[in-house]
Every structure is written in C-alpha cells, then in structure tokens.
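Lecture 7, part B: from sequences to assemblies.

Below are the input chains for today's worked example.
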Amino acid sequence: MLRFIISRLLQAIPVLLVVITVTFMLIHSAPGGPFSAEKAVPPEVARALEAQYNLDQPLWQQYISYLSDVIQGDFGPSFKYSGRTVNELIAAGLPVTAELALYAMLVALVIGISAGVFAAIRPNTLQDYIPMSAAMLGICMPSFLLGPILILVFGIQLEWLPISGWGDIPGDKILPALTLGTGYAAYIARLSRGGMLEVLSQDYIRTARAKGLSERLIICKHALRGGLIPVIAFLGPAFAGLLGGSFVVETIFQIPGLGRFYVTSAFNRDYTMILGMTIFFAGLIIVFNLLSDMLAIWLNPKLRQQARGGN
Amino acid sequence: MHSPSQTSQQRSSLWLDAWIKLRKNRMALFGFAVLATLCVVSLLTPWIAPYSYEEQDLMLGATPPSAAHWLGTDIFGRDMLTRVMYGGRVSLMVGFIATAVALVIGILWGAIAGFIGGRVDAIMMRIVDIMYALPFMIFIVLLMVVFGRNILLLFVAIGAVEWLTMARIVRSQVMALRKQEFIEAAYSMGLSRWAIIRRHIIPNTLGPVIVYTTLTIPSVMLLEAFLSFLGLGIQPPESSWGLLINYGVETMEEYPWLLIFPGITLSLTLFALNFLGDGLRDALDPRASKD
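Predicted structure of the full complex, as structure tokens:
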C-alpha cells in the first residue's frame, strides 16, 4: 500500500508540471496583455505595472520564477484585485466551496446509495424501475437547469427557502446543496445498483443465503462492501466534477466560493488568478483520485493483493 | 480455406440479434424516434421555422405561448420556437462534431496501442493516464478565455477531452481480441494482418464503440450547454440551448417560459440519447447485458 501511494505521488509530479507549464504558456500566448482592457495608461505607468508583475522579463525567466514560487506555495498577486494575493482569495473561497461540496456529496451518497440498493434488491420490478427512471431524469437535468427550477418553485412560488447567499439566512445552504448533489445521486444510484446486482449473483452470497442468514444481514453485511466498490471508484472523478459544478451553482446562488471566483476571473482575464486556481484544482483532483483509489483497494481484496505485489 | 459466406452470415446475425433486442426495448426506440425527429427538424430549420432568426418585434415584447407564437416570445419579441430550433442546430452540431473528433482520435489511439502492444502500448496508455488526471473542464474554460469564444475551438477542445475513454475501450477490446482463439485460427489459416483487422477486429470492436459514442454525444452537449450557460461557450448572435437557458434564467421570475422550453428540449434530448445508448449497450455488448 505504501509503495502504491509513493508511486502514485511520484506520478503526480509530472502531471502537475505539465499543468503548470501548459497553463503558463497558454496564458502568456493570449492576445492582449492583462492590462490592455483598461483605458490607455501613460507608457511609464504601464512599464511600472509590468515591472511590478515581472512582465518585463524574458518569458523563460518569468516561468522559472513562477515555478519556484509555486513550489513554495505562493501563487503571486492577483492582477485585478490589487493588493490581494491569489493565496488569500483561495483561502477565502476554499472553505465555502468545500462545505458546499461536502453537503452535495452527502446528498448524493445518501439518496444515491439507498435508491440503488433498493432497486437492486428486486431487479426488473417496479421497485427497480421507479428509482432508476428518477435517476435517469436526474442525469438529464443539468445543474444549471435544476438550480433555477428549484429557485422558481421553492424560492419564488412557495417562498419556503432563500434563493441566494451562503450562511446569511438559515436554510440558504439547502437549495445549492440539492442542486449540486442531485446529478451525482443519480449516477451513484446507477453505479450502486449495478455493483449490488453483480455481487448478489456471486457464490458467497449464495453461501450466506444457504446458511439461512436474513436478507437484511446479507445485504448490509456481505453485499454492500463489494457492491459499493464502483461508487468508491467514482468518488475521485466525481470530486473533479463537483468543482466544475460549483462554477454553476455558486454563480446561480451567488455564493462567494472558489467556483464563482474562477468564473469571475475568467471574465476579467485575471491571469495570475486563473493560473493559480487551475494549478490548485489540479492538485486537489490528483489528491482525491488517489484517496478514492486507496479506498477501492482497501475494500477489494483482489486489488489489495495486486497492490501488495507491487504492481 | 476460410469461407467468406460464413463470416458474413455470422456478422449479419450479430446485427440482426442486436436489432431484435433493441426493438423490444421501448425506451430505446422512443429515444431513437426523438433523436431522429430532432435531426430532421434541425436540418430543415431554415425552411420550416415559423419566423426568421433575426426577426424582432420590440413592440410585442415577451408574451406567453399563444397561437401565433407556440412557445411565446422573448423580451425582444423574437419567436421562441424559432430560437429553440436554431439553438438546437448548434447544440446538436457541437454534439455530433465534437464526438466525431473524439471518436477518430480515440479509435486510432486505442487501436494502435492495443494492436502493437509492448512498450508502445505502455507509453501511449501512460499518456492517456496522465491526461485523465488533468482538470479538463478548467482547461476548456481557460482555452475559451485565452483564445476568445470560438465555435471551432469549442469542437476541438471538447473532442480533445472526450477521446480518452474511447481510446481505453478500443484498446482493451483489441487486446482481448488479439488473444482469442479465433484470431489465432485466422492467422494459422494464412489470413493477412489487414484481413484480420478488417474482418474480425473491426466488427468485434464496433459494438462497444457505437454504444460509447451514443453516450458521449449527450455528455458533449451537456459540456457545451454548461460553457454557454456560464457565457464561455457559444456567443451571440449564434445561439444554443445552453445560451437560451442562460437568458431564460435572467428573466425567469417574469417570463418563466423562456427558461422552461429550452430546458425541456435539452433535457428531452439528453434523455433520448441516454436511453438509446443504454438500449444499444444491452443489444450490442453481450457481456454488459448479463445483469
């Protein structure tokens, strides 16, 4: 296991390097500098600004100095919010986005797993068709559609829940979490149904049944562990998706999180901000993929043996 | 030696089998029908749209659905049905073209890696692994920011993201097939490599490829709608369902139909494509349909 973690962490280094290099090159090949959008400034002011952000140095020198800053965890100053650093903005937005993602994941796991297991117990009956059709509906209802509809119904028509903000009014976290979590609940329902069906047809389940164990015990104790492996494997990629989803949900509900910062800085062409956040997101995604792989190995004895074999 | 008639018979029976299975699946047939209708409507839009794309009626403004405007009008008095039809052209086009880009790259990459094997395969698949780890959604946002919101770039960017899974599927298919007895038998009968690829490898990989293609189209369309919703995809005067939803959200309190109709159309299309894909998987991929 340790060897697996180390080898995966070593693999992450070139990936991060590629991310940093590609984003850096992309941004520096962009037509128009970061200050060209604003009204024309006197040339000496422009030069002073460029000197402040090291833009007057040759590209490779900028790259090297940026790389060494990033390795030390410093993403530099923001282009647009003068006086603030990218680190400060990430530190301000991360707790909000993390909380949102956590609630969304909870919604997704609770609804998804219970629907999937429920459906798998009696496949090809109504008990299967109804939750699975609902899941299909959830997959085909993107968050940028579901969010406004929830706002329209529960916020504006029924006036049950607040429609924007984060932590200002009680209950304002419910709609964003539901919006972000529902799509994943649908995927998780399908995955856990498939996983459970596969496990339930295996010999050790037949053995458990032959021993006369109750169906409840068979499902909860024996089948769930194996049946949820596909769900665990999905968690890593799902996390990356949650980040993307947070762009939409935070924009719709006006939540001051990382996703909204990212979209705003994309519109403002705040280059250092985009650069820093992209690298930060890449790092997060790598870590979460690793965690979900580790969980999957821990749950699956076959994979565990392979990992121990150093492969 | 080998008898071509037998091969073709086998192949046709595979497709016939699949068709019989698919025909029994009502949801898949429904999906197919919806999709076919959408494609025909999109192709004929310039001729059958009730109003012209640019036509505005500022005096009229936003009106709810009526006999003259089945889906109502937007704040500029533009007919929503016409706008949804034209938006669908762009959405479907992005879906098909970007998927085609992904298909070509993915099949070539996977087939070469799987067929050559060895070190070439290891390097090629390592590249795929590395690319999997990249936050692509963020890269696409970045591309759109840096190079302007260009529709061609959108095709390439989305296609470049979606080919990875296709490459993996094709490679694993080819790898599995290479070791099967009937391929060995074909070699021993003196068939050329090309004949084996053409007659055995391609038909046998086609099933999963078709299935995955059908499932890639909705995810591509979703990605486009996502970007357009954020204002980073399709730009006016072009229109797409994602962009229409974006506009609809802005005025949904006063004019909910501007959000609801493009929303329903997009969801229905995704629904149809997913059901068709699932149906095709059951029909064409015998291993996946065992449960």
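Note for the exam: The mean pLDDT of chain A is 80. Keep this in mind when comparing with the next example.
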